[in-house]
Specification:
- The chain is an alpha/beta fold and 154 residues long.
- 31% of the residues lie in helices and 24% in strands.
- It is built from four helices and seven strands, in the order βαβαββαβαββ.
- It has a seven-stranded mixed sheet with strand order 3-2-4-5-1-6-7, with helices on both faces.
- The radius of gyration is 15 Å and the shape is globular.
Length: 154
């Protein structure tokens, strides 16, 4: 079963944090799928991942780009996993509907990124935490320190 990491965004935005997490994922040789709650938000992040840095490149695509199975990072609003991702990123309010799904259990990691200043996002994260634990998943909670480093909280 995958480990589940909750990243509580307080100081930086998803646009600030996601590229570095994706770079670390790819450095491990893992593929990723990023699930969004809305197509509009997915398009914003799709554009951002092409331009976030002059020094880095994150190859990625969506179903509109074709060749979904060959994408090292796949952006979607669906529950599918066409690139056979090792890591599932859940962002902007996307959630897991079926914690007992066998496809979910094949992942190496599930990463929830949620905005700590949005009450709805906090509620969704708490609910996901509870559901994950009830279904036997190992969960960890990460919060940004004042210095900008991620620290595991107990």
């Amino acid at each position: 079963m995958p480990e589940i990491l909750f990243y509580h965004l307080e100081r930086r935005t998803l646009e600030d944090v996601l590229p570095s997490l994706l770079e670390k994922t790819r450095a491990r040789g893992w593929t990723a799928s990023i699930r969004f709650a809305s197509a509009e938000r997915m398009e914003v992040i799709d554009s951002h991942l092409w331009t976030f840095s002059d020094k880095s490149f994150l190859a990625h695509g969506t179903s509109a780009d074709g060749h979904s199975a060959r994408q090292p990072i796949f952006l979607t609003t669906e529950e599918d996993n066409p690139n056979d991702a090792d890591v599932l990123f859940l962002v902007d309010g996307s959630v897991v509907d079926k914690w007992d799904d066998e496809a979910l259990k094949k992942l190496k990691r599930i990463v929830f990124l949620f905005n700590g200043s949005e009450e709805g996002a906090l509620h969704n994260a708490r609910s996901a935490w509870k559901c994950a634990q009830e279904n036997g998943y190992e969960v960890t909670y990460w919060k940004e320190s004042a210095g900008g480093r991620w620290e595991e909280q107990s």
